[in-house]
Amino acid sequence: MPPDIWNHPAFAALTALFDPAALDRASGTPALQRLMETVPWPVVNASGRRLRLVESGAVAAADYERSVDGEGVLKVHAASWHDRFNACAWGLFPRTKAAISARHARELEQAGAGANGRTRVRDALTVFDEDGIVVAAADPLVEDAIRNFQWTRLFVESRAVSRAKMLCVPIGHALMEKLRDPFVGLTAKAVFVPVDDAFFGLPWNEKLRHLDERCVARVDELVTPRDLSPLPVLGIPGWWAANERHDFYDNREYFRSGRRGVR
C-alpha cells in the first residue's frame, strides 16, 4: 500500500477507529480479530452473536452469509486487503453490516429464489456491501444532484455545498480496496443520510454511530441495484487533485448523464 494512502479523505473514518500501522501488519486472522475488537461498540451479528473471524479459503456466497447470520462467523483470508477491509467495514458500520447479512439470510430462506439463491434484492445487497458509500448531506441539493447525475451542478456550480454540507464514508470493502490505488472511472453506489449542520462538528465515533443507525433502514429498503445511486467518487472535492480544475468534470465517460445497463 502506498505510504500516504491513509491520508486520503476516503479513509478518514477508518483511521479514526483503527491504527493504520496495525492494519498494515494484520495479515493474520488473530491480529485482525484483535484490531476489530478495539472499536468502541460491540461488533455482533443480527442475533447478538459476537463476530468471530475464521481463516478460510473460497466459500460459496450463500454459505458465507449463513455463517455470519447464523453463527457469527466471518470467513476471511486475512492476508487479502479485500477481506481486511471487510473486517474494517464491520467495525465502522456493525449494525448495517449485520442487517445486510440478515437480509441475505431471509432471502435465501424464501421460496422462489433461483438455484444459486440469487435474487434482485441479494444483488442489491451485494453491490452495497462491496461498493457502497454512505453520503451524509445537510442540503437536499446533494442527494437530488447525485440521483439525477447533475455533476456540474453539484461539484462546480455548488462546490461550496459539496465541500461544507456533504460527507462521504465508504462502507463497501471492494471500494476501499480500489481506493488504495484510485483511478478515473472509480464509481461507488450511494445511500443517503440527511443530517444537520451540527453533524459535521461531531467526533468520528458519534458520526459513525449516527450513520450506522440510519443506514439499517436503508438496507431494508433495497429492492434492486438501481436503488443505489452511482457516485463517481473522484469528483468529490479533496478526493482527487485533478478535480480542482472544472474541466475534469467534462469527462462524460466518467461523469455520465444517466444509467446504463438493465434493472
As a percent range, the share of strand residues is 5-15%
Number-wise, the strands total 6
Which geometry do the CA atoms define? globular
Side-by-side strand order of the widest sheet: 4-3-5-6
> What percent of the residues sit in helical stretches (DSSP H or I)?
40-55%
Q: What's the total helix number?
A: 12
Mean pLDDT: 93
Radius of gyration: 18 Å
Which helices and strands occur, and which strands form pairs?
Layout: H1 12-17, H2 20-25, H3 29-36, E1 52-55, H4 61-71, E2 73-76, H5 81-92, H6 94-109, H7 120-131, E3 132-137, H8 140-147, H9 151-157, H10 159-164, E4 166-170, H11 173-179, E5 187-194, H12 204-221, E6 229-232
Parallel strand pairs: 1-2, 3-5
Antiparallel strand pairs: 3-4, 5-6
Helix pairs in contact: 4-6, 5-6, 5-11, 6-7, 6-12
